[in-house]
Sulfotransferase
Amino acid sequence: WLRSNFSSEILPARPTLFDFHGVSMTKHFTDNWENTQNFKARPDDILIATYPKSGTTWVCYMLNLLYFGNMSPERQKSVTLNERVPFLELCAPPRPKGKDLADQLPTSPRLIKTHLPVQFVPKSFWEQRCRIVYVAHNSKDTVVSYYHFGRMNSLHPELGDWSTFLQDFMEGKMVFGSWYKHVNSWWEKKQTYSKLHYMFYEDLTEDSGREIDRLCSFLGLFPSAEEKEKVRAAVMFDNMKQNKMVNGSTVQIMNHDVSPFMRKGKVADWKNHFTVSQNERFDEDYKQKMKNPTLHFRTEV
Ligand code: A3P
């Protein structure tokens, strides 16, 4: 255990990555496996599923405001988003387990976050026919965001330099495994499971109002134009960055001096990181892995 130089909390040593049923994981997301798998979903639970660094926090906050923004303004100021929308598989003592937080959520519906690949989602979510919102983010910006997140977050395994990290990403040696398999298998699930809304980070940055409308129609919500506008404004990058309940500043394991959690919030920051030859190699490899013509990502907007 190491003492962090930016807070009084004792930080655990960084975890190691290992193969877990074919997916790279760390113990923080597998240690509570049986309990997580036995989670008892309710029919009105809403699962927000993403590969890490896809805009999870953004969409969690959006849903949180759409459902509860008016009802309990006090809760918005005193309870962090991480508690309002628990991270189901997280098991990082001394923090409470995500599964327990989800069990104890006082809200209805319960909003629950997960990064699990589709094959690992606890079966009760399917049995109860829960609504699921999946958010996908183009691979190039995701790997850049993940790299900076890995540097600032001590729950992430040790990482090498940028070019090593990029290579690891292409090989699926990331926490929660291969981005390529994650986005593809969730996309395939959508073809047979109608209560899945598949969103793109790039669409959100392009027109968040339109995406909020689509979300509402999926969720069966009918907020007034004024309410929608309030949500749209609250979830703007600069506003979220200032908001201590959602910007990660209360999370002790993150060092925002290394890189802020609310970092850039832009599409195409990859252009500031990829060299020309890295980009060529990446594109070549991408073509091999992304054969489904119906799943299309934009790397600029
Ligand atoms: P960057 O590192 O590219 O800035 P997640 O919540 O899944 O961990 O995703 C984090 C990424 O989403 C970060 O990307 C973060 O800045 C971005 N993000 C969070 N809120 C956002 C918002 N309101 N608008 C745009 N991007 C947002």
User: Anything to note?
Assistant: Residues 139-152 form the longest helix (14 residues). The chain has one domain: 16-289. Strands lie at 2-3, 10-11, 18-20, 23-25, 46-50, 111-114, 131-136, 196-200. The longest strand covers residues 131-136.
